[in-house]
């Protein structure tokens, strides 16, 4: 039921923004691809590659999923029709997906975090993750594991080149 989000599916897809801190602060359990309800000046600003997912999160209110704190700066050629940079934006998901997300968020200690914002065939999509917050010791373990893997790869590279 959950569609695996893959922003690199075709050649005309382009990543606008990524949330690199999300993978550090959260354990990603499941990912979804959702559309976003935007106004015209927001899309024009996104086509210029301007957006920030820092501090962005999603909530489920009254059976609808909302993306909050996504910063899309005002379109510099816009007039009085420009949008508010940090307004709440509705995410477009199927009813079954919304119901499933609502149940999982209510049952477990989970949250919805946007991982990336990208274009797919001319439409703006967001990769949304069902995630659990990490404790400080979990973050340290991940960093230590990553360092160990990097050291093993470095040593294998040296041996392949005959340096040791």
Automatic annotation (TrEMBL):
One of its GO terms (biological process) is trans-translation-dependent protein tagging. It is found in: Cytoplasm. Pfam families: SmpB. InterPro entries: SmpB (IPR023620), SsrA-bd_prot (IPR000037), SsrA-bd_prot_CS (IPR020081). It comes from the Bacteria. Transmembrane segments: none annotated. GO terms for molecular function: RNA binding. Keywords: Cytoplasm, RNA-binding. The keyword RNA-binding applies. One of its GO terms (cellular component) is cytosol. Coiled coil: none annotated. Required for rescue of stalled ribosomes mediated by trans-translation. Binds to transfer-messenger RNA (tmRNA), required for stable association of tmRNA with ribosomes. tmRNA and SmpB together mimic tRNA shape, replacing the anticodon stem-loop with SmpB. tmRNA is encoded by the ssrA gene; the 2 termini fold to resemble tRNA(Ala) and it encodes a 'tag peptide', a short internal open reading frame. During trans-translation Ala-aminoacylated tmRNA acts like a tRNA, entering the A-site of stalled ribosomes, displacing the stalled mRNA. Belongs to the SmpB family. This is SsrA-binding protein.
């Amino acid at each position: 039921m959950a569609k695996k989000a893959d922003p690199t599916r075709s050649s005309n897809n382009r990543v606008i923004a990524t949330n690199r801190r999300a993978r550090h602060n959260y354990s990603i359990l499941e990912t979804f691809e959702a559309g976003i309800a935007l106004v015209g000046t927001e899309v024009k600003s996104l086509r210029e590659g301007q957006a920030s997912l820092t501090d962005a999160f999603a909530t489920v209110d009254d059976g609808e999923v909302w993306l909050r704190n996504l910063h899309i700066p005002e379109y510099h050629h816009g007039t009085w029709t420009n949008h508010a940079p940090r307004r709440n934006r509705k995410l477009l998901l199927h009813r079954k997906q919304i119901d499933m997300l609502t149940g999982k968020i209510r049952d477990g200690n989970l949250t919805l975090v946007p991982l990336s914002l990208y274009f797919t065939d001319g439409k703006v999509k967001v990769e949304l993750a069902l995630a659990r917050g990490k404790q400080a010791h979990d973050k340290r373990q991940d960093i230590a594991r990553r360092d160990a893997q990097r050291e093993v790869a470095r040593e294998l590279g040296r041996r392949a080149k005959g340096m040791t």
